[in-house]
Amino acid sequence: MKKWIPLLRFLAVSMVVVFILSEAKDFLIKTSVDIASPKIIGAKVEIGSLSVGLLSHKIIIKNFRMYNPPGFPKQVFLVMPEVMVDVDVPQLLKGKMHFPYVVFNMDKVIIIKNKERKLNVDSLKIVEEQQAANKGKPMKLPVFKIDTLDLNLGKVIVEDYTHAPPVRVSGYDVGVKNLKIRNINGIPKLVTIVLVEAMKPTALRSAGLYAATAVLGVGFFPAVAIGLAVAKDTADADLNTSSSRVHRECLRLIADLKGTVKKTDEGKGEIWAKVYNCDITFTIQSKGWERCHIKIKARQFMLPKLETANGLLYQLTERLK
After folding, report:
1. Residue 258: left (phi > 0), alpha (psi -120 to 50), or beta?
2. Which of 39, 108, 269, 314 is at a distance of 20 to 30 A from 23, taking alpha carbons?
3. Domains of the chain: which residue ranges?
4. What is the pTM of this model?
5. Contacts of 91 (CB under 8 A, 6+ apart)
6. The CATH number of domain 228-320 is 3.30.310.80
7. Is 206 helix (H, G, I), strand (E, B) or coil?
């Protein structure tokens, strides 16, 4: 009988945990949605699905999408295919939100600079409220603690409306993988840290984020974009589309961006053009079975313009969807 005691204890504890998490499941879901509420962030939020692992003590959020704040194009601002949150159950039972480990798998962030030269990141309510807090007007927000945030971020797109139409689009392969950020004590710091990491490669200056970092003690040191592009001027991707269709769409994209085609050879899969005052080369290689590989090279005055190549690739892939 003694040899069964450890197993019985384990089963008893497991049943208690399952019961507690079953009762707390609705609270966890409501809390997660409330934290991401437009009332707090200042932008529309959509969640594809949210599940709670009763035995793993994890919240899994799929297809998290945040849209632009009012005053900006009604389009997506931030896309996270997956968010994983470890929950401290004993603290939860005490009414405290403590998350030992959180993972953000972010696909893209789209920064918009409108005609008034204002950035969408500065118009988020959470950022504006931080500026108010800096002036002695603290805000009331859900209190929680994250011990470790594991941040992954794919790319950042910048849409600049300050130029004459069409909109100028630049892209940056951020490539942030498993960046560990510790001791996050609330949503202002969480949002600020994520946005600061997204802004770094763009060399854009954000007055709102700068003020928020001053309040929260978050370092904000924008990288110089040209330094990231010195060694490379080509963006490339595998596409599940025929080379002929991609060739036609490249020509349409050039026309829509008010660029000029210098030379084109569909047989060789090549297009030479001038877009955004840059010399652009499109090279399309058929892989058969409705698949192809594309390379987009961008240079201006002989200098690499990787952000321009990435921006063109982003616009092309969006059109092909």
Report:
1. left
2. 39
3. 8-223, 228-320
4. 0.79
5. 97, 98
6. yes
7. coil
